[in-house]
Amino acid sequence: MSTALHPSVSLGAGTTYGEGCVFGPGVRIGAGCVIGHHVVFHADTIIGKEVRIDDHATLGKTPMRAANSAVTKEQALPPLTVGDSCIVGTGVVLYRGATIDSKVLLADLCTVRENVTIGRGTIVGRGVTVENVCTIGRYCKLESECYITAYSELEDRVFVAPGVVTSNDNYVGRTAERFKHFKGVRVKKGGRIGAGSVVLPGITIGEDGLVAAGSVVTRDVPPRTIVLGAPAKVWREVPVEQLLENQGWVDA
């Protein structure tokens, strides 16, 4: 299959691409990028320099809206932007209106929706979904198959383990009242959520708070505190040696 390259596309020096790629109008790609086979760049997408994009990725996709969608709106969205030195895995879908900072890893089969920002150095694991209108900070780790619900905010250095589910609708899709109360979750700097946990709408996990694996979080988690159980209850303080301030990490 031949590549479709719109005349308005700008490709940086040394950028290479495989077979069957589609480059829509106004696409701009920086120098030294490596693009696999059958990658689709929708109109106006902006890619930084030295970005690796693997086979069958789709970048700059326009949102779909079902007739009865509660949170997806018709709107004019800015182009997708992907920063320098990112890695975009096989089958990744990045929507128009998302902003990805530099050195972000987007692993195979993950999806990042519109009106989402992802900070420098963050890892978005295999099969992760980040829904619309979310802010993800710098140096976060979102592990395989976790789900970040719409209208959520994760600050810097947040860790979300595999299989975590967050939610934003206490009415579970029933009655018009729910439209007034959509609210995602907030995880403050250094917060951690253990494998298989469920976090209910509007919950705040405090700075350096820790949710034990398999918990159901129905109340806010105090800073520097471990909670566990279903429903999750305070267990004890986070050990001092585990606090973010004691890790010696330097942002790069």
From TrEMBL:
Protein's name in the database: N-acetyltransferase
Record bears the keyword Transferase: yes
UniProt keyword annotation of Membrane present: no
Database matches in SUPFAM superfamilies: Trimeric LpxA-like enzymes
Keywords: Transferase
GO MF term list: transferase activity
Lineage of source species: Bacteria, Candidatus Eiseniibacteriota
Matching Pfam families: Hexapep_2
PANTHER family referenced in this protein's UniProt entry, alphabetically: ACETYLTRANSFERASE, ACYL-[ACYL-CARRIER-PROTEIN]--UDP-N-ACETYLGLUCOSAMINE O-ACYLTRANSFERASE
CDD domains: LbH_WxcM_N_like
